[in-house]
Amino acid sequence: TNPSGPDTFGRPVGLLVLKDGSLLFSEDGNNRLYRVQYKKRR
C-alpha cells in the first residue's frame, strides 16, 4: 500500500446497467466512476 494514498480501496457502492449492456459503478473510497463493457467476437 501507499502510505500517502487513500485508506480505502475498492468499495463499490452503486451499480447501473446501461442500454448498451455496459456496467457503470461508483467507488466512493477514491471518488471514481467506472464503466465496464465488452466487445463481441466476430
From TrEMBL:
This is L-sorbosone dehydrogenase.
